[in-house]
Amino acid sequence: MDRQISNGVKVALVHDYLNQYGGAERVLKALCELFPDAPIFTLFYDEKLTNGAFKKRTVITSFLQHVPGVRSHHRLFPLLMPAAIETFDFNGYELIISDSESFGKGIIVPPGALHVSYCHTPPRFLWDGSQQYLRDTGFPWLIKKIVPFGLTYLRLWDTQAAGRVDHFLANSQFVARRIEKYYKRQARFIYPPVALREFGKRWQKQDYCLLLMRLVPYKHPEIAIEAFNALGLPLKVVGSGPLLASLKQQAHSNIEFLGSLPHKQIAPYYAQEQALIFPQEEDFGISAVESCAAGTPVIAYAKGGAKEIISQGGLMACSLRTKMQRV
Q: What is the torsional sign of CA 115, 192, 121, 185?
């Protein structure tokens, strides 16, 4: 974004936690450009894991910053996060913008302050994805019997936290419908910013498809791995996450894992790929937009935000699950 917003209003930015650099963090970066003097309030922060994107910003963290292991295993600490997010003091701020997909919207702001929440999604692990979350955690049997009680507490808190927001913005029409379903609130949708000009250069096509994502259970990277194992076609995987080790064990020799790459290094992969593989139900899907901007088609699971980006027929929209059944 080229234009800065500065009209004397004291602004604060809120983000759930900064221990990765994905789509939500890129939205936060754009907000930082709009509000260059606004501090970032976040539960915990790791400069290295965010590729130094916020090293020049004032970042204010909660007590979770000092809890051992939280930055690498934050999914083990959800019960601490409501209390942590509520400890931030926003006295003196007139506009607070939370860029959130979980706990950031639960801040408590002073009377007279305006809280606008750019919501990437109501947290899936609490709502429509809670059963999948329990299956994927790998917790022992006894812990899995106890976890639902914690999830019930977090659902109650999440509903209450949504009531504190003055105005919701959603990152897609799909998410706006989810906000209405789970929070009974109306939300306008504003698609995330994407620097399309970065992907305008044309490269010679090479013989591979690309899978680019955080390797976490709800994104279902294993579907792509299984499909390309069966097809025997070249696949390059960009990204890291808790599933990396198991996916490497599952993958055949035609699949190459490149790890996490700086954003500026990804454009050539988009331009040279035959297609981007998009097997997940995504809330929006910045990588799909980037692939299209590079002139490359997308093979997508036809649900969620992908249906707002990709038109069947114009580009290749299909279910990889269906493709698997045909192999």
A: positive
